[in-house]
Structures are given as C-alpha cells and as structure tokens.
Design a protein that fits this description.
Layout (H helix, E strand, L loop, with lengths): L1 E2 L8 E15 L10 H18 L4 E12 L6 E14 L2 H8 L1
Length: about 100
Amino acid sequence: MFLSTEEFPQAHRILGIVNATSHLAMPTEAIDSFESMDQLFSDVQEKLKRRASEKGADGVVGVRFTTDVANMQVAPKFLVLTAYGTMIQFVPKCQFKLEKK
C-alpha cells in the first residue's frame, strides 16, 4: 500500500475516493506547540492506508491534506488534519491489452 501526492503511471482502475481525519486538543499552556502536527500526519496516513486496503486498493494517489485550528470558547484549541485521495488498483498488463481493444 502506498500514498502519493502525484498520479501513478502504471495501468490502474479507480476505485473511488478515500478520506481520513484526525485531531488533537491543544492545552492552553501548549497553545503554540504545533510540533504535534507530525503525529497527526502519521495517524491520518495510516487511516488512509487501512481504509484503502479494506476496499482492495493497491494505493492512494492525488493525496491532499488540509489543516485547521478549531478555536473553542470553553475548551482548548484543536488541531485538525484531513486527508483525501483517489484509491487505485493495478490492472494486469494482459487485462489492460484486452480492455484496450
């Protein structure tokens, strides 16, 4: 299973879109500590891989990430990371040739 922000040059079929979100509460004393975003990226990438694998995908291409800081009046800030991409499944070369005719 792989993730890529680019397309994949090998013959493949598109299985659909997959997405994942992860968040982290930022306590008041660590309000400017954004190093925690690294862990969010790891979490979201693992979720994408797991969900795509469950659908029979070989990889996810065109992966995009969005980040947000959700400010709450009665709670700490939340770092939110969302990712989405297109699930693909490789097509065997012999099948590709038959479909192309």
